[in-house]
């Protein structure tokens, strides 16, 4: 009946004391250990991120295990705590594969309901010793949105083997575990593949946003094990993607918060015409609009997070809404980040473009805004009906 | 916690109560019948305004007397001391029932003026005014704006001069006063000390709208109808006991009313956006791709706007004053109203602008023409942006003029 009203206990939309503490700890840690110069330095390394910091985050703070149940080596908090960590990571532009490992792969395993696979992999994800990703989950940009898997699985004499290719795989060249959605005679299923050079060719793509690496992954008879059942696979894939959208939304909020904060600080001290440029109304009003957009994004993100945390049936709607508002906000906030800094904002030296790249990369990661809106329309009964 | 019901439990209780006192609103299946009004500001004659006001008052009294109004007020004022967002939870349920639509004078009285009295009133004033206002036996309008003092409200020229120890005499001309024809009280922002800098010389009074010297004249709006007025105050005598807050502190009193107004405006436009989405869902032809995109966008906007409201009220519960942040909600809401107009124009095309007599088509012109009013009333969109920039983002003020 009230399908336009958020279905959530309002308390779940605001931060708990514990979450606030986690935020403070992470913000300090990123400020100390992962400033923008460190990020740039690590981008140039083979693995592309600070592996020592990765280990500290998993070990000292337990970020990786926040949303993993205790029985699988996690700390059994919820997605809401993980979202706090992701927001802070997004703010700092932390460039390690948290999203593919801790969000996508971990949730694909959890949602598959396959206890053996969970026992096998989740403890290593939680303690930071395994990097993982998913492949073939989203509609591949080139297959025109077709849900027909581009990877197929065949039962060989020694178990399943995978053939086919998946593009735009996050951390696809580096991840030690790839969860692949592949077609079988019984329909699409999820498979776990630990890529080996002989049977899996991984080609890093040149990417706009170097803080988030992507690769083309070609499976050439790669051995794999089935995860979960064929019946559950499509539901698990879809829920994993929605969880990914909620996670990305939290990152986008963090990135937008950085862009707004840095711009406000700059315009308050930069003088032209004998006064701070931040006292000009043309500047003020643009930043006020960013603030409005940021509050909208925070609200959309908080809802998607809360829905993911309690596995609400509203998650698909919330995830679509968050994807649209948070992408829009991040794009706008980073555009103003450059514009209101003037010439300095257009330089390679200045961090603004790293955030622009992140924003543009993120907004198409799990579908475009049009795709999210089309899906939302279907979910809420606004789909075009066939002509009578 | 003591006595605070779980939200779900509260909503179920509200539904049960509502089912006993009101009829359910026509649902999707019955699209096309009942009232098709989407007026933002009503186009009423004085008689219609009085009639409708009386109907709303009757409903508000039922609500109040049976414990479903004033939810966040303490028991002595008829409330239940519930967190502020319970009002929103209640509204969510009430939306499914056919209850009279509240024109602005009601939220102004209950959500703007009453809280200001709660904050600034003496004990005597609170016991005299709060219950009648929360119950809407008394209705209060805002006598703030003047021809020369709109955005720059502190420039008001209406003068209040002491007469003896226990009274004041008010003289001035107020404009754009919503609901003045049905209000029994007016909250007047006046100048009491011409010798000090403008903000320091302001004092606020509650004026009986039937006092000798008060003249109300309707002003016709761009919608064609009349919901605001000009109000002449010609030597109106006001007892000192009707002064709200200390002499010379009126600017702070005014600001608390304006802050409440912004807070209250976060839910503006949602009803009509919902209606526009119903229209999209009930069109007799398939939606085009572009229309579907626009409609989905409006849908998620209403969702986000409601979430923003819940977050602001949740912050209130946690004891944080949302203050200037409330401008965010007002700016978001006025944009929702514009996008509603845009979607409807797309969906209805020519039958929006020429009256074919068809239900739910030309009626949308009232939204189209009314919506711009809220980008002006209660502080313009530009003023809200300045508030956000200076008071939330902390940007430097304009150099002094
Ligand atoms: C439907 C409606 C109902 C109303 N109801 C009431 C009521 O009940 N009681 C009451 O007291 N008043 C009421 N008002 C009046 C309302 O508060 C004022 O109209 C409003 O504050 C703007 O003032 P103004 O009309 O004098 O416009 P102005 O202040 O002259 O503004 C004109 C334009 O200039 C812009 N502007 C002004 N100053 C600045 C600045 N510093 N920076 C940038 N731009 C600026 C404004 O944003 C606006 O676009 C109502 C108005 C409307 C439209």
Short description:
The complex is a heterodimer of chains A (388) and B (401). Chain A is α+β, with helices and mostly antiparallel strands. Chain A has helices at 17-33, 36-43, 51-61, 79-92, 98-112, 115-126, 230-269, 281-309, 315-339, 352-362, 369-379, and strands at residues 132-135, 151-156, 159-170, 177-182, 189-193, 200-204, 214-227, 271-272, 275-276.
Give the structural class of chain B: alpha+beta
Q: Which outline of chain B best applies?
A: globular
Mean pLDDT across the residues of chain A is 94
Overall number of structural domains of chain A: 3
Q: Helix content range of the residues of chain A, please?
A: 40-55%
Using the coordinates shown, work out and report the CATH topology of the largest domain in chain B.
Answer: Butyryl-CoA Dehydrogenase, subunit A, domain 3
Q: Mean pLDDT across all residues of chain B, rounded? A: 92
CATH superfamily of the largest domain in chain B: Butyryl-CoA Dehydrogenase, subunit A, domain 3
Task: Please name the CATH architecture of the largest domain in chain A.
Answer: Up-down Bundle
Per CATH, what is the topology of the largest domain in chain A? Butyryl-CoA Dehydrogenase, subunit A, domain 3
Low-confidence stretches of chain A: none
Strand content of chain A: 5-15%
Report the count of strand segments of chain A.
9
CATH class of the largest domain in chain A: Mainly Alpha
Regions of chain B with pLDDT < 50 over 5+ consecutive residues? none
Our Rg estimate of chain A from Cα atoms comes to 21 Å
Q: Main β-sheet of chain A: number of strands, strand sense, barrel status?
A: 7 strands, mixed
Domain Acyl-CoA dehydrogenase/oxidase N-terminal (chain A): 16-128
Pfam family, one (chain A): Acyl-CoA_dh_N
Organism (chain A): Streptomyces niphimycinicus
Protein name (chain A): Acyl-CoA/acyl-ACP dehydrogenase
């Amino acid at each position: 009946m009230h399908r336009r009203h958020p279905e959530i206990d309002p308390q779940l939309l605001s931060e708990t004391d514990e979450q606030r503490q986690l935020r403070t700890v992470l913000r300090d840690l990123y400020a100390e250990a992962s400033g923008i110069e460190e990020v740039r330095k690590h981008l140039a390394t083979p693995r592309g991120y600070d592996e020592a910091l990765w280990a500290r985050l998993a070990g000292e703070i337990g970020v990786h295990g926040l949303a993993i149940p205790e029985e699988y080596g996690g700390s059994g908090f919820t997605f809401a705590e993980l979202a706090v960590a992701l927001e802070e990571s997004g703010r700092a532009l932390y460039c390690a594969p948290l999203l593919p490992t801790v969000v996508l792969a971990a949730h694909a395993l959890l949602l598959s309901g396959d206890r053996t696979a969970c026992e096998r992999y989740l403890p290593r994800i939680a303690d930071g010793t395994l990097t993982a990703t998913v492949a073939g989950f989203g509609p591949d940009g080139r297959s025109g949105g077709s849900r027909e898997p581009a990877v197929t699985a065949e039962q060989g004499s020694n178990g399943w083997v995978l053939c086919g290719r998946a593009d735009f795989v996050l951390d696809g060249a580096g991840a030690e575990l790839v969860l692949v959605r592949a077609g079988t005679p019984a329909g699409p299923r999820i498979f776990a593949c630990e890529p080996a050079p002989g049977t899996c060719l991984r080609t890093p793509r040149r990417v706009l946003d170097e803080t988030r690496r992507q690769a083309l992954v070609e499976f050439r008879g790669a051995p794999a094990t089935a995860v979960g059942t064929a019946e559950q696979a499509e539901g698990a894939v879809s829920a994993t993607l929605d969880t990914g959208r909620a996670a990305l939304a939290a990152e986008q909020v963090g990135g937008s918060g950085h862009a707004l904060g840095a711009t406000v600080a700059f315009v308050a001290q930069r003088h032209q015409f004998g006064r701070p440029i931040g006292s000009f109304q043309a500047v003020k009003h643009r930043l006020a609009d960013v603030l409005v957009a940021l509050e909208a994004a925070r609200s959309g993100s908080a809802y998607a997070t809360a829905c993911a945390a309690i596995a609400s049936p509203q998650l698909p709607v919330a995830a679509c809404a968050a994807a649209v508002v948070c992408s829009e906000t991040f794009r706008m906030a980073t555009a103003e980040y450059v514009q209101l800094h003037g010439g300095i904002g257009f330089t390679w030296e200045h961090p603004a473009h790293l955030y622009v790249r992140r924003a543009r990369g993120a907004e198409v990661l799990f579908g475009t805004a049009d795709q999210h809106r089309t899906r939302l329309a279907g979910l809420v009964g606004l789909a075009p009906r066939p002509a009578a | 916690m003591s006595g605070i019901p779980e939200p779900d439990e509260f909503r179920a209780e509200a539904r049960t109560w509502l089912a006993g006192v009101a009829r359910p609103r026509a649902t999707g299946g019955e699209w096309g019948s009942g009232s098709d009004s989407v007026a933002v500001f009503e186009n009423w004659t004085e008689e219609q305004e009085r009639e409708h006001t009386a109907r709303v008052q009757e409903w508000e009294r039922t609500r109040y007397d049976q414990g479903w109004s004033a939810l966040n007020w303490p028991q002595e004022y008829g409330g239940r001391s519930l967190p502020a967002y319970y009002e929103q939870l209640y509204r969510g349920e009430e939306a499914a029932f056919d209850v009279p639509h509240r024109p602005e004078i009601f939220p102004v009285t209950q959500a703007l003026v009453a809280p200001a009295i709660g904050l600034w009133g003496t004990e005597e004033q609170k016991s005299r005014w709060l219950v009648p206002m929360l119950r809407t036996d008394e209705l209060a309008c805002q006598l703030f704006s003047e021809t020369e003092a709109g955005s720059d409200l502190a420039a008001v020229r209406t003068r209040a001069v002491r007469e003896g120890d226990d009274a004041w005499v008010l003289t001035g001309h107020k404009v754009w006063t919503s609901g003045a024809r049905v209000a029994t009280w007016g909250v007047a922002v006046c100048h009491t000390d011409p010798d000090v800098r403008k903000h320091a010389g302001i004092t606020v009074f509650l004026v009986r709208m039937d006092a000798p010297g008060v003249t109300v004249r309707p002003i016709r709006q761009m919608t064609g109808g009349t919901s605001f007025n000009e109000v002449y105050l010609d030597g109106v005598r006001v007892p000192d006991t009707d002064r709200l807050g200390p002499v010379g502190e009126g600017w702070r009193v005014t600001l608390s009313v304006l802050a409440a107004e912004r807070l209250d405006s976060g839910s503006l436009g949602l009803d009509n956006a919902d209606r526009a989405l119903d229209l999209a869902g009930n069109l007799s032809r398939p939606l085009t791709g572009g229309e579907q995109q626009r409609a989905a966008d409006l849908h998620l906007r209403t969702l986000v706007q409601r979430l923003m409201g819940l977050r602001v009220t949740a912050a209130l519960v946690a004891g944080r004053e949302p203050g200037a942040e409330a401008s965010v909600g007002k700016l978001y809401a006025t944009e929702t109203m514009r996008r509603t107009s845009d979607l409807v124009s797309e969906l209805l095309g020519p039958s929006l602008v020429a009256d074919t007599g068809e239900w739910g088509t030309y009626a949308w012109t009232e939204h189209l023409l009314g919506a711009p009013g809220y980008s002006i009333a209660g502080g313009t969109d530009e003023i809200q942006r300045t508030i956000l920039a200076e008071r939330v983002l902390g940007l430097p003020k304009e150099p002094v003029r």
